[in-house]
Design goal:
Distance between the termini: 183 Å
Helix content: 40-55%
Largest sheet: 3 strands, mixed
Radius of gyration: 42 Å
Number of strands: 16
């Protein structure tokens, strides 16, 4: 016997609902990744479009945030920027430059260095920023200019030969030639090796670079002269193998005889004649200095010839 109920399926489970089938078998994670990629691509497209609009909106003027030595070029034409930068250089370019080595100072004029400011090229370089045609590179310049400022360098040149002449004068007081190792008489009377010492010289290229940068910054701060160490060409290690032979050369004075006369080259003189051949480190007596020493004795030996009578 049948009876009515309030449920549509009183004695059975409801029919199964077929699951939703995703195209290509995608799962939730893949869908999320695709959505993120699509959003990123859309954002990049919008950003690129905005950058193109920004780039074209400036016409023949500098982009916002560009500057050269503190001169804001935002929105200026080349002619307007030229007038402002020329005025800045004319009023702020240092007439004198201070060179420093430790506590010592030398003041030299910018004119003596042949300093020349090229404001026209500086502005052409700044104007080209953000106009490469590559949206990625240009947008980076635009964004940096908008949010942090983009500083383009001021071009300045110095005359290399004039700078070298100025640095020669500094070197006369600040640099020192290396002292080669040599054989010397020790406190006990035997021959020893004086090790000599390294010298110093001015690194002209690095100092010129530092000078140029200081001038380009329109700064009056001292420029540190770059010094380099110059080792001696003859070191103690080179002399060490020949010490025994050099000692024999100088162990006693050299006696020269001519006729009835005798002349002596003392040990100190002989020490000054000892040399080391740079080709094979052989120890010997320097021929030129030996001839000079003997030549000094020759004036005592030579007697003028007389005709027989």
């Amino acid at each position: 016997m049948l009876r009515e109920t309030t449920s549509e399926y009183p004695h059975a489970l409801p029919p199964k609902v077929a699951p939703i089938r995703r195209p290509w078998g995608l799962n939730d994670l893949t869908e999320r990744l695709l959505l993120a990629v699509a959003m990123a691509a859309s954002f990049l497209f919008i950003l690129t479009g905005a950058a193109v609009v920004y780039g074209r909106s400036h016409g023949p003027t500098f982009y916002r945030g560009l500057s050269v030595v503190g001169v804001d070029l935002s929105g200026l034409t080349l002619a307007q920027a030229q007038a402002r930068l020329d005025a800045r250089v004319a009023s702020s370019a240092p007439a004198m430059v201070t060179l420093a080595v430790g506590a010592r100072r030398w003041s030299v004029s910018s004119a003596s260095l042949g300093a020349r400011y090229d404001t026209a090229d500086s502005l052409r370089d700044a104007y080209a920023l953000g106009r490469s045609g590559n949206p990625l590179i240009d947008s980076r310049v635009w964004l940096q200019g908008l949010f942090g400022g983009y500083r383009s360098p001021l071009i300045v040149e110095v005359d290399t030969q004039a700078t070298y002449r100025v640095l020669e004068q500094v070197a006369a007081a600040a640099a020192a030639a290396p002292v080669n190792a040599r054989y010397a008489l020790g406190s006990s009377g035997g021959l020893t090796i004086d090790p000599g010492k390294s010298g110093t010289a001015i690194d002209v290229a690095q100092t010129e670079l530092a000078l140029t940068q200081r001038l380009a910054d329109l700064s009056t701060q001292p420029v540190n002269v770059e010094l380099v160490t110059v080792p001696p060409s003859v070191t103690a290690s080179r002399l060490q193998p020949g010490l025994a032979q050099a000692s024999r050369f100088t162990s006693a004075p050299l006696i020269l005889t001519a006729g009835d006369g005798t002349w002596e080259l003392g040990r100190s003189t002989l020490r000054s004649l000892v040399t080391v051949d740079s080709r094979n480190d052989a120890v010997g007596l320097d021929p030129a200095r030996l001839r000079a020493s003997i030549g000094a004795l020759a004036t005592q030996v030579d007697t003028p010839a007389r005709n027989p009578t």
